Amino acid sequence: MPGTLRELATFFLRLGTTAFGGPAGHIAMMEDELVRRRKWLSRESFLDLLGASNLIPGPSSSELALHIGYLRAGWRGLLVAGTCFVLPAACIVAALAWAYVRFGKLPVASALLYGVKPVVIAVVLQALWGLARTATKTKFLAAVGLVSLGLSALGLPPILVLAIAGASVVLGDQAIRAMRRDRALSLAALAVLRPSARSAGLATAAAVSAPFTLGSLFLVFLKVGAVVFGSGYVLLAFLRADLVVQRGWLTDSQLVDAVAIGQVTPGPVFTTATFVGYLLDGTWGAVVATIGIFVPAFLFVAASGPFLPRIRTSRVAGAFLDGVNVASLALMAVVTWQLSRASIVDPLTAVLAVASVVALVRFRLQSTWLVLAGGLAGFLSRLLSGH
């Protein structure tokens, strides 16, 4: 066990320091290192953990790290993996928040990201290819994945796409079993899922300054961590309602800067909370906000982790999870496409992306080193060009 905990700590500390590219990039790097190289778990188990992470609120890549930690070393593994993944990113964001407060502007990170982003695209594409071959076990699952891809591209909320996919596979599985029992059953008898979703809007009101306390800061981020699904832009909407509109603690400009820092630094996007907390009350504010937003993820995974093996043994729950798995990959694919349009913008970034694919597939280089090499290439390119 101690050796396992050290391995978890070492890997997730490194990942939290180098994992650019948002949740899709984090997930791809975990798959590359832990499934393909170390073989800590099978692709099937990895997909189940990914699907379970997408079904609960909070940062999906962080929850995947927590699930992997629990699978490897129980409750202590969960705590070690989650803490080591979040801590490096939180420290980096806190340092940038200090610079922001001191100098009044964001440090320049464009040169680094210029080279890192096309490499991340290559890493995610490799992971998607391997995981999709495992997840699409039947033609029906492949069809559900394609439909999920279309729904996600049309802008449906991620949780609704996951629910539709999971329920569709359950209904499809039940229909197939019924057809096997009764050959006379016609295809017209298959039920068509017509899911409905309630749309939840954020209340708007005139900004009224509310008294600031560390306790109220903790509760704000505890609530956000417990209810937010989706990307950093969804996080932006919730934080704006609470911190700008209702309480008047931040300006719109400060909040946009905070979300930008969370997205351009390695590790979880939810470390935006660290930046906001530092702006509001220095080091203690950063600590309280970070703990508040990540505590729900630890609790949700701790509560759901022990039940995953039972879910897979249930035919209905297992079918639902199969649907969620292919939909999760569809969501990753859409995010990757959106990111690629902003990442591969000229011949150099195209060369970096293609070279990274070759290095991963042909030479099986570690994704971490490729990310670092991409960052260096981007920095040198901007330095030589004088930008």
Descriptive report:
With about 375 residues, the protein is an all-alpha fold. The chain folds into 2 domains: about 1-200 and about 300-385, no CATH class; about 215-295, no CATH class. Helices cover about 75% and strands about 0% of the residues. It is built from 15 helices and no strands. The chain has helices at about 1-20, 20-35, 45-55, 60-105, 110-135, 140-155, 160-180, 215-225, 230-245, 250-265, 270-305, 310-315, 315-345, 345-360, 365-385. Helix 5 (about 110-135) runs antiparallel to helix 13 (about 315-345) and helix 6 packs antiparallel against helix 7. The longest helix has about 45 residues, at about 60-105. The model is unreliable at about 185-205 (pLDDT under 50).
Helix content: over 70%
Quote the average pLDDT. Answer: 83
Unreliable stretches: 184-207
Q: What is the count of distinct domains?
A: 2
Biggest sheet architecture: none
Over the alpha carbons, how many angstroms does the gyration radius reach? 22 Å
Number of strands: 0
**What is the straight-line distance between the termini?**
50 Å
Structural class: mainly alpha
Q: Helical element count?
A: 15
DSSP strand content: under 5%
Give the overall shape, derived from the CA principal axes.
globular
User: From N to C, what is the helix and strand string?
Assistant: HHHHHHHHHHHHHHH
Chain-wise SSE layout:
Layout: H1 2-18, H2 22-37, H3 43-54, H4 60-103, H5 110-135, H6 139-153, H7 158-181, H8 214-227, H9 232-246, H10 252-264, H11 272-304, H12 308-313, H13 315-343, H14 347-361, H15 367-385
Helix pairs in contact: 1-4, 2-4, 2-5, 3-4, 3-13, 4-11, 5-13, 5-14, 5-15, 6-7, 6-13, 7-13, 8-11, 9-10, 10-11
